[in-house]
Specification:
This protein is mostly helical. Helix content is 72%, strand content 1%. The chain has 17 helices and two strands. Strands 1-2 form a two-stranded antiparallel sheet. A hairpin with a 2-residue loop joins strand 1 and strand 2.
């Protein structure tokens, strides 16, 4: 006679960052301490404004990837702590600058720094955090690490400029969109993962594999972010709905819908995205058009494709808690859409 085994608990469990967080908990506490210590300055406004962004929360996903990648590669030293802090400073600096560029009023459900202190202090404190990140790179002493993270910083800036160029341009195609998100989002994911192998002095093949994991994970992450901007679930993530639409950003859902639409819909996108001539009911109409053309669904499927590539990239590493946690991160990033 067979024995029935209940699998409901496992079946219903949603992917999360819990395994990753538990895996790197002690290291992450050390990184949080370094973040608080290294953002200090005798100029009071700097730690005040930087602390506002840090206190807003966030999952610390990028530094956790550095910590987990180092563990996956068998590293037992302490260099990864400073470098994970560096990664978080680069990320926080870009957030400060992005909110100014986008004129955002909210960040993770709280008033953004630029909404509280204004644009100039936000830009300058972002510059300070970039500088602190470079100090940490120099303290690490590795030219290879310096090359990876400094390159990531410049590529991120290029990505932001590329996004400015494509904003409001309804001729933007999927290739141009992917170029933007590879640079502005995925590049830091890739660098954060690669340096985990570098500090562990692992072969280049492992560093390349982790970089590919991070790059594909970052693309999947941003694709889902762009889908969520047209989803009611966005409000639960501390962001307002429709920011990308109001700013005329050309994200994949819009690119797909324009390519599949008729002349009347193209006229709608030209008015709302290109000319930014938007009326009260335009966002609802935009969502309806996206749904009619399966643009949101297909964008999630694109994210799954990149998620699969991320999983394959680390398939060659030994099975264990680190690999399982990094694999679950992929599922977590994509399941945010639901």
């Amino acid at each position: 006679m067979g024995v029935a085994v209940s699998i409901d608990a496992d079946f219903e469990r949603k992917p999360s960052l819990d395994a990753l967080t538990a895996l790197v908990r002690e290291d992450l506490l050390a990184v949080n301490g370094l973040i608080m210590d290294r953002m200090q300055s005798p100029v009071p406004l700097i730690p005040q404004l930087a602390g506002h962004v840090v206190a807003a929360g966030g999952k610390r996903l990028r530094p956790m990837l550095t910590l987990a990648a180092a563990r996956l590669c068998g590293y037992h030293g302490g260099r990864h702590l400073g470098l994970a802090t560096c990664v978080e400073f680069i990320h926080t600096a870009t957030l400060l600058h992005d909110d100014v560029v986008d004129d955002s009023s909210l960040r993770r459900g709280l008033a953004s720094a630029n909404a509280v202190w204004g644009n100039k202090p936000s830009v300058l404190v972002g510059d300070f955090l970039f500088s602190r990140a470079f100090e940490l790179m120099v303290e690490d002493g590795s030219l290879e690490v310096l090359a990876i993270l400094s390159r990531a910083s410049s590529v991120i800036a290029e990505g932001e400029v590329m996004q400015l160029i494509t904003t409001g341009d309804i001729e933007t195609d999927e290739g141009a969109y992917l170029d933007v998100i590879r640079a502005k989002t995925a590049q830091l994911f890739a660098a954060a993962c690669r340096i985990g192998a570098v500090v562990a002095d692992r072969p280049r093949s492992e560093a390349d594999a982790l970089e590919a994991y991070g790059m594909n994970l970052g693309i999947a992450f941003q694709l889902i972010d762009d889908v969520l901007d047209y989803s009611a679930k966005q409000a639960t993530l501390g962001k307002t709905i429709g920011d990308d639409f109001r700013e005329g950003k050309m994200t994949l859902p819009i690119v797909l819908a324009i390519g599949r639409g008729d002349d009347l819909e193209r006229s709608f996108w030209r008015r709302t995205i290109e000319d930014l001539d938007q009326q009260d009911d335009d966002f609802d109409r935009a969502v309806a058009i996206l749904e009619a053309h399966r643009a949101l669904t297909d964008s999630v499927e694109r994210a799954r494709l990149y998620g699969d590539r991320a999983a394959r990239a680390i398939a060659g590493f030994a099975d264990g808690a680190e690999k399982r946690a990094l694999t679950e991160v992929i599922d977590f990033c994509i399941e945010r859409a639901y």
